[in-house]
Automatic annotation (TrEMBL):
Keyword S-adenosyl-L-methionine carried by entry: no
InterPro entries xrefs: DDAH-like
Binding residue positions for substrate: 18, 60, 65-66, 85, 131, 242
Top-level taxon: Bacteria
Key word Hydrolase present: yes
PANTHER family: DIMETHYLARGININASE (PTHR12737:SF9), DIMETHYLARGININE DIMETHYLAMINOHYDROLASE (PTHR12737)
GO MF annotation: an example: dimethylargininase activity
Annotated family: Belongs to the DDAH family.
Pfam families: DDAH_eukar
Keyword terms: Hydrolase
Organism: Priestia megaterium
Protein name: N(G),N(G)-dimethylarginine dimethylaminohydrolase
Length: 253
């Protein structure tokens, strides 16, 4: 069960955030509405939501997930791999300190984005991506093993972040797309397979009794519902334009 979440309002500079997509510039007003709906959905799931104000120096800082890895016992402040995002951790650190006593740090030359870290029960999967390097992943692996978790490092082929292509729903069930559908590291789980045309729906979040999914992906939604998961759909169009998904917009613990 999650009790608490942290989100951060997009600022005016949000429209200049990093992207690899060709979906056009986000519309700020729409992004703000979608962000409000996201907060409402989290509240429906029964969690407290701490809303941090926008910070104009950091266009991507609404994607708070990348700044930390949180567990019930300890927090790890990440070291985001994009230079324009690295300073986001300094604003997040005091907030995390207000919730945790046991805090670790990923240190340079290690880099790590929270979007590359997937927890499945007591096992973490650490993606190596454009943002998370081997040094960063190995630092986190050591921390996790010290804290009695298991950790597996996974090399990404095409996905932006690990969680762009895989999510954990609970009950040993994962949602997988693209390179993760037949990936040997994930073969022991029950899989909900996302078809190529719905790939964006592979990033979804289980929050207590619900799975929050992006709107507009009916096949994936149906498969989740048939597997017994209750879904809440949210329009994510403006965050998608900046390579952002549902998990990126919150820290959950
Ligand atoms: C970036 O390039 O860093 C942002 N535009 C998107 C970050 C998405 N975060 C995530 O998947 N955890």
């Amino acid at each position: 069960m999650f009790k608490t979440t942290i989100v951060k309002t997009p600022g005016e500079s949000f429209i200049h955030g990093l992207t690899t997509s060709d979906l056009g510039s986000p519309i700020l007003e729409k992004a703000l509405e979608q962000h409000k709906a996201y907060i409402d959905a989290l509240k429906t799931c029964g969690v407290e939501v701490t809303v941090l104000p926008n910070h104009e120096d950091f266009p991507d800082s609404t994607f708070v997930e990348d700044t930390a890895v949180l567990t019930p016992e300890f927090a790890v402040i990440s070291n985001p791999g994009a230079p324009s995002r690295n300073g986001e951790i300094f604003e997040m650190e005091p907030i995390i300190k207000s919730h945790y006593e046991n805090i670790y740090y990923i240190k340079s030359p290690g880099t790590l984005d929270g979007g590359d870290i997937l927890q499945i029960d007591n096992h973490f999967y650490l993606g190596l991506s454009e943002r998370t390097n081997l040094e960063g992943a190995e630092q986190l692996k050591q921390i996790l093993e010290l804290e009695h978790y298991q950790a597996t490092i996974v090399q990404l082929e095409k996905f932006f972040h690990l969680k762009t292509g895989i999510s954990y729903l609970g009950n040993r069930t994962i949602v997988v797309a693209g390179e993760f559908i037949d990936h040997p590291d994930f073969n022991s789980y029950t899989k909900i397979i996302v078809p190529p045309e719905e790939e964006y729906a592979a990033n979804c979040i289980r929050v207590n009794d619900y799975v929050i999914i992006p709107a507009g992906f009916p096949q994936t939604k149906q498969k989740m519902n048939e597997a017994g998961f209750r879904t809440i759909e949210l329009d994510m169009s403006e965050f998608r334009k900046l390579d952002g998904g549902l998990s990126c917009l919150s820290l959950r613990f």
